[in-house]
Amino acid sequence: MSFLKSLTKYRCKCFFHLYKCTHLNTMSPLLHVVEAGTPVQGNDELEKNLVQVEKVAYSQGLPPEAVSIMLEFAMSLRMGKTVFASASKWVNWGISMWESFWNLIAEMQRHNFPINSYPSSCPCRASHYERNKKCDAEYKDGTDCLLFSSQGRQPFLLHLLSLYKVFCPELVTLSIPSRMKSGFRNHISPWKSALIAVQKRNGLQGASSISLVFTNKDKTNPRKRVCIFYWVCSQPSATQSSSRRVVPLVELHSFAQLLENMHRIELPAQMGSLLGSSLALQYLDCVQDESALLRLNFWLGPSQTSEEALQFLNKLLSAQHFLQEGFSSSEVFLYKFLNVWDGSLLRPQILGLLSNIPVVPSSRELLFEPLMQLFFTSSLFFKVGFSFADTNRSNLLPLLFKVNRKKINMTLSGFKDSMMELIHFVGRLASVGLQLEGCHCLLLSFVLDFYETVCDTFLKYGLPLIVMPPAGVFYPALFATDPVSVDRLAYIMHSNALNVQAFHISRQTFREFNHYVVVMVNCLWNSRMFHPGMGVQLGEELLLKSNVPQYGSSFDLVHHPAFMNYAVNFHQKVSHSKPWSWYLEYLFTQGYDGLKHFVQSNISWQLKADDGQVDSQQR
Amino acid sequence: ICFSVVRTPTDSIVAQRRSKNKSYRQSYRSCLGAASRLGHTPGWTVRRLNTSRRTKSHNITEKVNPEHLALLVKTEWQLSYVTPLYQFRHTQLRSYSRQLSAFITAEKQQGLAVEVEGTQTSFRVSFSVVQGLGETDDDAETVLVQIHSKPVFAGKDEAQKLVWSGWLTCINGNPEYLHSLPKDFTCLPLFGSRGAENLTSLVKSWFQQTFDCCFGPLEINQTCQQWLAALWTNCHIESSIQHLKMIWTLPVEPPLQITYTVNPQDAWELWNSVRTPLLERREEEEETARSIDIEEVTRFMQGLMSHFYRHFRLDLSAGRLSQVSSALGSAKFSGRIKMSNSRYVLTTLSLLTECALLKMPI
């Protein structure tokens, strides 16, 4: 039976669109449509054309469209046992290139760059193919299914399929007789040698070192070999054939490459994959492509409520830290989440996210209310640790305070307003918190710490801001039983005094400030505490009932519970009464600098000769 | 990444916008002022459900393909919300069908080295457009996805059966939100599915990979269920609801589940009594096209709950409504919905679309 003779009628579909390939315009003989039914065997012209194509392919490389056309041509030939050499070569070529692309994609997927739409440079988009005995061989370009037939026995196809089976077993369903497998020890060589030849011609020698690493994982079971095929390129393969090729963002590994290819970057199909890459974030920040950013925000939404929240949030935080601003979807997420947060779940991450929220006037309801609820319903240590402590970075208020102003194009007055609001908010928290905790000294100390920072806003943030501590903070500090708190209060008042002199403030603030200074001096120095107009008003009968003699001086520097033991010490050390100023000096040497500054700046007195009593005035 | 454009109330200086496209997203943040960002900003009023809705019943049996309609109606769907799809084209549905079927087959066969003849099940996926379901031009066309496959031990000649179906839709979506999205995005926020869970997750992951979108669970919350109860009761005259059944869960130990079934006539009378009198409304409104306000719904539910309290001394408002059902459909808190009458499909889907849009990250 001569198949050669019986193969007079066959179909040959060739639509050579090679017109469109710019570097193949030397191949004009190929550029015509051939009718169906043209004999292939013995068709000299066709053979000549194929050889020409082959020559060009080896010398310059072919664009993907050309390859797909050649493959289509090869597949569409109905042939019997006789192998048409050139055509089968194309088939071999196509499939081995195909698997390389496939493996490259698999490799990228392994590195967490999910790819779903294959880059335009990939000619074959098949995701799987299967053998179906009954169907005809058909290859549709750019589609998903490649159906092979076993019309007659086409051993070359079977060999190639089994090769594919070796690399991606899950994608090929066919059963291979074991004797066929022996033919494929050296399958990589045709592709490898051809590729090296082409690259040499294109002058890329030494430019990219291609190493094929072939590891055979499971040697024991020949039927079920799983092989991992790495394609390692040291540089992205920049072919000279196409200058308008888009570069996928995932291929760039350095900033220099990013800059070089800035105009032709292709974003990955899934924006979420970019979160961990600082290069990608830089690109996004620069380009400000709204679709891309929207996609990223959309992806962030549901992901924030998923189970692997910790790692995800850490990644998100580092991205935000890198970009120095927050994502709007994480703001929205936070506003919803804060209402149900218990304060301890993922605390550092949530606080980190909070620090990226711009403090705008409208954030009051959304942000402050849930935080306030959280604060008031928690224990003392939680209050301290959560809100005020600056010892580690995971605390709330210092973070809120460190607002990144640069990204918000607010005017200075707008920024100042929002900072004032923030400080008032903290004042409220502090007042009520102190009441709830009975003026616990730990909380008080952190609150005073905060107000010390407030005094320094001009120094630290360039913002001329003066905010007095509210009464709920001032008085507990003044009457505190530990001297450190009083000292710190004095320091705060002293710094504010300096600030008052330095910048222009409102009348209201000035009045407040004055009032506090008067109260403090009268209390500590003039022994006129509880007198009318001195802040704390207590009725005469109550004061009498308390049986405290000379209640006016009950909180001065000698009788104040905080300083009482110093007074006693001083009195014990000193044999006879000494000038008042010596006592003060003694106090100041105990380290109470705040008190020292306050007294020195607000109080002047004239010493009488040998008497502890002084006339004092306040400045 | 926030486009940081804020117009402070004290200053009239507007900071420079960074991007050239004037987008809604940028503009809404510029109107922050003293108003809360999410609640009352002009334009973006829909971070809560609409407070009033039209109750017109739509006879869509002529507009919609009866096969599609038969599929939609009388089946229970599991709902999810989807973020807008990037570069989704209604013209490429055939290609999507092939891609999805290849994806599913590949996923199913992962790890299998050698084919065992006969157990191979091929999946045939078809994407189709359900025309006639939309009301406005802003809504993208509803897309229906069906997966057919041969049962596992089927004979050779057995036809493929429908094993999974799902749809993506947007009915009466908020036009401002839809317009604020760039051109590349298609907003089909409501996703319903029915079938094996593994197929659902495969379909979802394919969508996520192909269109860079995200799926999330959509619960039918209290307000939404109450709306449905009221809407169904309102339709009692046109199509009898046969009963109004509510299942409440009370937070006691052990949890108490109460099934409260109301006679349709009683429900109808209660409903009528809580409606705002007709005189206060515009006279042009037809009886059937009247709109319902949230206050009426609340009063209706209050009526039902106080009736229950009078009899059993149990305050249902302390609990949670976990299911509402009638002859016109059923809705469960877990996100399962069933629409049993084709006339009310559009109203139900608009309500659910609104719920889905509320879940959008931004």
From TrEMBL, chain A:
UniProt keyword annotations, A-Z: Centromere, Chromosome, Nucleus
One biological process term in Gene Ontology: CENP-A containing chromatin assembly
InterPro entries: CENP-I (IPR012485)
The keyword Nucleotide-binding is assigned to this record: no
Cellular compartment(s): Chromosome, Centromere; Nucleus
Listed GO CC annotations: inner kinetochore; nucleus
Similarity comment: Belongs to the CENP-I/CTF3 family.
Xref: PANTHER family: CENTROMERE PROTEIN I
Name this protein carries in UniProt: Centromere protein I
Protein source organism: Neolamprologus brichardi (Fairy cichlid)
Lineage of source species: Eukaryota, Metazoa, Chordata, Craniata, Vertebrata
From TrEMBL, chain B:
Pfam family, one: CENP-L
Keyword Nucleotide-binding (UniProt): no
Keywords in alphabetical order: Centromere, Chromosome, Nucleus
Location in the cell: Chromosome, Centromere; Nucleus
Keyword flag Zinc-finger: no
GO cellular component: chromosome, centromeric region; nucleus
InterPro entries xref list: CENP-L
Family: Belongs to the CENP-L/IML3 family.
Protein name in UniProt: Centromere protein L
